[in-house]
Known about the structure:
alpha/beta, Rossmann fold, four-stranded parallel β-sheet, 4 helices, 6 strands, 21% strand
Amino acid sequence: xxxxxxxxxxxxxxxxxxxxxxxxxxxxxxxxxxxxxxxxxxxxxxxxxxxxxxxxxxxxxxxxxxxxxxxxxxxxxxxxxxxxxxxxxxxxxxxxxxxxxxxxxxxxxxxxx
Length: 113
């Protein structure tokens, strides 16, 4: 089995492997909860948000300097392909690899008649 349930009840990967994850939609809700769980478990996270300044301030108010080094907060509008490409480039530049992408942000396009 590659994972287990941690003490907090969330699914957690093997504690001996620190993963590099990109999570979209981390300013609130499920994405924000996942971001905090991953940082607490020792993983590195590229946290994307449409409000990166507020998210960085939130993290700075909670975590120590060493944990903050494992978080890269990046502004992202998932409807803009160039911004998406830039997130991947920043992830590789900062951490050297990217193991998992969690697409938690949504983009809906529709027309009203």
